[in-house]
Amino acid sequence: MRAVDCVERVDLGEVPYEDAVRDMTDWVARRRAGEIPDRLALLSHPPVITYGSRTPPAELPAGLTVPLIPVDRGGQATYHGPGQLIGYLVLNLRERGPGDIVRRVENGLIAACADLGFETVRRDTPPGAQSLVGVWTPDGRKLVSIGMRIRGGVTSHGFALNITSDLVEFTRFVACGLPGVAMTSLAELAAEQSRPAPAEQEVRDAVARALGAR
Predict the structure, then answer these.
(1) CA 107 to chain centre
(2) CB 77 within 8 A of CB 87
(3) pTM above 0.85, yes or no
(4) Which of 52, 55, 199, 202 has the fewest CB within 10 Å, making it most exposed?
């Protein structure tokens, strides 16, 4: 996002998924009414698997080890849990003008990763294929999942960036509608570079800067 597109940064800790969605729904209504500015909320969730209305039942876990919750965002099933940074974006797109908001978020997160010392890329989705929206490593592992909703010109939901996430949880179901997708984390990428993983606060700051939030 452009530097002039400043949004309000809201830092939260671990928030139960249902509570976060309730808060986000309120923020969307207030943003649409002009009562609050654009907002980026940074937080985490206790373990939960969320999935969209188009997610085939066969892609969901057979044995429930964590709560399974249907959601009204784009995208397929994904896991949220400790060690993951969630970013919820409540933006009035009518005030921001034309442009692909998902592409802006992808590029912003790629810039944040570069600031942290990690090379990442976005991928175009071939016609008729499952969506490749998100942030990826050059060798094809997925670091960030993105699922957003736009209603009445205002966005909700956002992204999930794996910092020290338990990647085994992603193997218990079909993550992002992509059978065999390899998920990764900043901790895993840092270990490959023989250096410590960035602290969560460092990641939050890099993401907020890249998305124009303060």
Answers:
(1) 13
(2) no
(3) yes
(4) 199
